Amino acid sequence: MSLRTLPLLVINMGGEMLYILDQRLRAQNETDDKALRGFWSEEDRKRVLNDIVRTMFSKAFLEELMKPQDLYSHKALRCVLTRLAHTSIMRLNPASMDRLYDLMTMALKHQILLCPRPRDFLLISFNHIDAIREMVTDSPSLVNQINDAQRQIIEMYTPLSDGELQLMRQTLLALFQDFHIRVSIFLKEKIQNPDGRFVLSTSGPVPHGSEVPGLIRWFNSRGREVRRREFPSGGCYTSAVREGSFDISGDRVTRLGKNKYSATSAEDTRTSDTSKNTSKAKQESVGPNPLAKEELNLLAKLMGGMEVWSLAQADTGIRVNLFPTDEDDGGISVGTDEPSFGVINIQATKDHQANTELTRIAAEFTEQQDQPEGPSNKGDDLLAMMDDL
Amino acid sequence: MAKMYHKEKSIQIKSSASALYNNLSVLRIAPRCLTYFTVVHANVVNMVSASWDGLNYSHRQLQSKEGNVATSSSLIMQAAWCVLPSRDLLVLTSQKGIQMYESDGSIMVYWHALETPETPTAQAVFARGIAAVREKYICVGVSSGSVLVFDVPSKGSNITLSEVLEEHTEAITDMASECSGSMECIADLVSADDSGLLCVWKSGGDFQLLNKIPGFDTSCSSLKLWKGTVIAGYGTGQIRLYEGVTGILHAEVNAHARWIYSLDIAPFTGLLLSAAEDSLVRVWHLTITPETNSVEIEHLYNECVTDTQICGAKFCDGDGYAFAVTGYDLSEIIRYTQA
């Protein structure tokens, strides 16, 4: 369908990922577990975020994304986001990345679905970009990078018609179709139902450019209104609020796309998959993927310029739980044929031993480069494992 | 107030409905006491045949096609039955082309490939908007704004592209042909695009443009044409009633709070169905008197499909006694019948 969707998809998903990583790394400092506390310092956290943002908003990366092309498959998208996360010193194992991806996916699906009109998806993207800019505000060069990227986005998307933007939205909805993963914070805030479907309100302001339903007007042949009549609209709508700003900065008005994780705990980011995995698997198996080559080209480009952690390093892995929770957490009860609601921990390793699939792929593309050590003195022998899956 | 319609047992489909305009098509086959439904999911069309006694359901899935490849991952934009005097054909439009099948989906009788540029441009390529016109035409819209007119013989697969109409410059969203059955109507076909422009046509060996009704830069996503009146549903949630030949606006309805995805008319009674992303289906009554040039529209009924962005809504019969609804991410066809 739409060939322009990829840049916004990656920026929005990347934004959600940064929200979650930022929040979880901060939480490390507040944990009761002495073994964990202080492992990810403020400086470490900022460095992780800066590294990811630097890649995400790099000219080469964005240029690749902005070429007219179909959306990537979930598999390829996950690869790209994992690689983005790994441009920092942080390492996420595949299971953790899966869970992080589920969270990002559902957050974005919610935003796209609830978007009052297709053009508002740009405002949602700008909310993400604004928040990212805040995160790296200490680094003027990064802020400039983000501003440049945002100018490109504005130039590319604001001239599009509502119909073209709706096509983009429909393309994204197709990507997220059949995903019904339940997320604690969404269930708690009553924006998601127990069956995984999102709550759609029939009240509130109408989108900018629409009228409150409930009125019929008749006109004569000269275009003058001659009669009007009301009808019961069955909802509780109010007039549209003011339009959000499509500039580099400004009040976006919508809250969609803002950081919902700042006040959350690990509890809130638990996920439970209601869908039979077959429906997601089916998406991947739809025909031979003609994009495989393009996706790998992008990854190669990314990895070519990126540091690749040497595989030969001794095992000094330090696993840190991004989402520590109590062991006897009851979880939310679900229907009998649903998988039980377990606690999912996302494990982030500050690790010089790359053991992810991507690094294996990287090895196929680029030569291994020797890397300067990261801040590995931070308690190399510190082990914090809380596995209660 | 007594409810006008009540909910019936839903029909389960093999996969969920995609978020596409007009994503439900219904064909009633009276001699066999069957109704066919189609719902698009990505690159597949789910087809269900339901017996009127509610006892028998049979399913079939049709896939999109690409060149010589039998199955393709190219996404389907729309599927609709075209009812012609001599035959019914099921038409599928996708990113690659147009497929036409016998009405039960058993045999593909025609394939038309869309021209795709060698290097991808930012403009998406796809076909969308399907209408059967008069005795022998099937018209299909394209993302470039072209309308392809196919000449369909009364049987066999000798279908030919007879004309390409080039009035629109934005992607075609929907098309509708006159459905009142009256031979007195001058306008046979109306086409709409992303800018809201409506083109009104008279069919023939050469289609004749009767009128161009400008849009207000608001996409018109669903269209009907009944007794010479164009009924158009827009992204702003409004419905407008225009006189086709003159372009005069008769009425404007602030109908929905979100983008309208589907309109349908029951031609024998003038019942109008509208459905949108706001989870609401509304039933209206239209009275059109061409002699006095009067158009009356009255609101009759609302149905809220909770937590669902509706993408298809159609009457199951010409009187509007029953209607069916599909929604994004829903794997069922919800049905309602008059109480």
Structure description:
By secondary structure, chain A is mainly α. Chain A has 12 helices and 9 strands. Helices cover 42% and strands 9% of the residues of chain A. In chain A, strand 4 and strand 5 form a beta hairpin. In chain A, helix 1 runs antiparallel to helix 2, helix 1 runs parallel beside helix 6 and helix 4 packs parallel to helix 11. Chain A is globular and about 70 Å long. Chain B has no helices and 29 strands. The radius of gyration of chain B is 18 Å and the shape is globular. The model of chain B has no long low-confidence stretch (mean pLDDT 93). Chain B is 0% helix and 54% strand. Chain B has a single domain, classed as Methylamine Dehydrogenase, Chain H (7 Propeller), CATH 2.130.10.10. Chain B starts with a strand and ends with a strand. Chain A: This is Organic solute carrier partner 1a. Chain A: It comes from Pygocentrus nattereri. Chain A: InterPro entries: OSCP1.
The radius of gyration of chain A is: 23 Å
Radius of gyration of chain B: 18 Å
Which band does the percent of strand residues of chain A land in? Answer: 5-15%
Helix content range of the residues of chain A, please? Answer: 40-55%
Major beta-sheet overview of chain B? 5 strands, antiparallel
Organism (chain B): Pygocentrus nattereri
InterPro entries (chain B): WD40/YVTN_repeat-like_dom_sf, WD40_repeat_dom_sf, WD40_rpt, WDR54_beta_prop, WDR55/POC1
Pfam family, one (chain B): WDR54
Protein name (chain B): WD repeat domain 54
Key features of this structure:
heterodimer, A: about 400 residues, mainly alpha, three-stranded antiparallel β-sheet, two-stranded antiparallel sheet, 12 helices, B: about 350 residues, mainly beta, Methylamine Dehydrogenase, Chain H, four-stranded antiparallel β-sheet, OSCP1 (chain A), Organic solute carrier partner 1a (chain A), WD repeat (chain B)
